[in-house]
TrEMBL record:
Residues covered by the SusD-like N-terminal domain: 70-222
Keywords for this protein: Cell outer membrane, Membrane, Signal
Major location (coarse): membrane
Keyword Hydrolase (UniProt): no
InterPro entries per UniProt: SusD-like_N (IPR033985), SusD_RagB_dom (IPR012944), TPR-like_helical_dom_sf (IPR011990)
Subcellular location: Cell outer membrane
Signal peptide extent: 1-20
Family: Belongs to the SusD family.
Name of the protein in its database record: RagB/SusD family nutrient uptake outer membrane protein
Recorded superkingdom: Bacteria
One Gene Ontology cellular component: cell outer membrane
Length: 511
């Protein structure tokens, strides 16, 4: 059983009564007046814990993780034989960059992000209304403020100019602000509050905001600044990364896969995770971590003893898989080739042939020539527990890793012309892969882009990387057309614009 502090186990219980991913207007706590609830430190912690319980929506395949991953080269969910994964063409549109403002999945992402912002505003309002005081209260408030900044960063990244409000009691329609305003707001919120936080993850603060998490978020803000506000901030990126490095308590795990084990709570590399527990977070369809269901052919259940049905959907694209050297240990995160059950017996498909995951995928969305059920290599990055029963995995989803901090600093140095200084940073991560160390001449931007793909596959980073490295619009194996530049932002959902007339649609889109 996972070693999670008792208060966070209570937070898991709170997640069971939170509303679904698409129903963010309801307030499940409105029946408990804040002046009756906040009587001591534990009750404040439980209230702040709502925001961490809320995060379980993130990995929903119809919310942020699935949608942004399938819009990159690292993931695809093709129409498969037997008319599997039709889903009104949403996976085709996401991969081909032909989405529109009517798509429910984009509205779901919007509602997740702004529901999170609203929840942070509510918690802060309730804290402010309470006269109860205790030593850790400023730190707890800082956690919520940094989480709100994190939500706004994601909203700015995906949708550009977005509505802005920090006052839970203000019932007027939020005004729309531009990226420069939000950039400054996020930067200042983190700087103003990071000093109140604990340094790094420990057994007592696991899954919560720390200084390391806040500075990593700041590094994310700075490394994407050229795209987001038109100003390069490489020095600031390096400084934010140095803050994380300077704690001296985080390290690269010798075993890459230990970061993604069923019980990955002991990783010294993971900086910020979303807590999942197969008992506490399996109460709602939208709240579960279900990579096993998304990617595995149902026959692969026999490989791991998985008892719940797998859906045979998400896979890596052929070109992405081919970026891995055969000697690269990280290549083992993909199931490829002939497949066997737990006893070593071949897994046989209905046609009598052995299940063989092939890198090549026939088509993206072609009813006359659909992808076959065995096409596309499948993810096994997160350990699948033997005998896994139910829809929710027990692993915690990794949002930030120390490897990313080192590689962001290294990238910033290379962009400044200091590849020699970046070499030890990249090699600190690379040495566990079984590959030769980098030399300064190896560290071109194209190589850094590919290395980040290999290191962080299916960790939700690829979209930002593709945009930052100028790869987003390019044609690729199952996306033959070059995308218009405006697709670097998603459209503001049409239904949202109907309810808030202050919002101007992003360029290139109509309602």
């Amino acid at each position: 059983m996972k070693k999670i502090v008792s208060i966070l186990s209570t937070i898991f219980l709170l997640s069971a009564i939170l509303s679904s991913c698409t129903d963010l207007e309801e307030n499940p706590y409105s029946s408990i007046p804040s002046n009756e609830f906040f009587n001591n430190e534990e009750e404040f912690l439980m209230s702040a814990g709502r925001i961490y319980a809320y995060l379980v929506r993130y990995t929903c395949y119809r919310c942020i993780w699935g949608t942004i991953s399938v819009s990159t080269d690292e993931a695809v969910s093709p129409l498969r034989e037997g008319n599997q994964w039709v889903d009104d063409g949403v996976w085709r549109d996401m991969h081909a960059h032909t989405w529109n403002s009517q798509m429910q999945d984009l509205q779901t992402i919007w509602e997740f992000l702004f529901g999170g912002i609203s929840l942070c505003n509510q918690i802060l309002y309730e804290f402010d209304q309470s006269s109860v005081d205790f030593e850790a209260k400023p730190s707890l408030v800082a956690e919520v403020l940094v989480m709100r900044a994190w939500f706004y960063l994601n909203a700015m990244d995906l949708f550009g100019n977005v509505p802005f409000t920090t006052d839970f009691s203000d019932t007027s329609l939020p005004r729309q602000v531009d990226r420069k305003f939000l950039f400054s707001f996020i930067e200042q919120q983190i700087k103003d509050n990071v000093g109140l936080l604990q340094d790094v993850p420990t057994a007592s603060n696991y899954g919560r905001v720390t200084k390391a998490m806040a500075y990593t978020t700041l590094a994310k803000l700075y490394i994407n600044a050229q795209e987001w506000i038109g100003e390069a901030k490489w020095d600031e990126t390096i400084a934010a990364c140095d803050q994380v490095i300077g704690f001296g308590q985080l390290e690269i795990e010798p075993d890459y896969f230990s970061n993604f084990k069923v019980d990955n709570t002991s990783s010294k590399e993971n900086i910020f995770v979303i807590l999942y527990d197969k008992v506490y977070t399996s109460q709602n369809w939208w709240h579960v971590f279900r990579f096993h269901q998304l990617t595995l052919n149902s026959l692969s259940q026999q490989t791991y003893g998985i008892l719940d049905f797998c859906w045979n959907g998400f896979a890596a694209t052929e070109s992405f898989y081919n970026k891995y050297d055969p000697k690269d240990i990280r290549r083992r995160q993909w199931l490829a080739g002939p497949q066997y059950d737990m006893s070593g017996n071949p897994l046989l498909m209905q046609n009598g042939q052995q299940l063989d995951y092939t890198p090549h995928i026939t088509s993206l969305f072609d009813f006359s020539n659909p992808a076959k059920s065995n096409e596309g290599v499948r993810s096994a990055k997160y350990e699948y527990a033997n005998g896994l029963q139910g829809e929710c995995m027990d692993n915690d989803y990794v949002v930030y890793r120390y490897a990313d901090v080192l590689m962001m600093k290294g990238e910033a140095l290379v962009r400044q012309g200091h590849a020699d200084l970046a070499v030890p940073l990249f090699n600190e991560v690379r040495r566990r892969t079984g590959l030769e160390d980098y030399k300064a001449a190896d560290l071109t931007l194209d190589e850094i882009y590919d290395e980040r793909g290999r290191e962080f596959a299916w960790e939700g980073l690829r979209r930002q990387d593709m945009i930052r490295f100028g790869k987003w619009s390019e044609a690729r194996d199952l996306k033959p057309a070059v995308s218009p530049a405006y697709t670097k932002l998603y459209p503001i959902p049409a239904n949202i614009r109907k309810t808030n007339t202050n919002l101007k649609q992003n360029d290139g889109y109509t309602d």
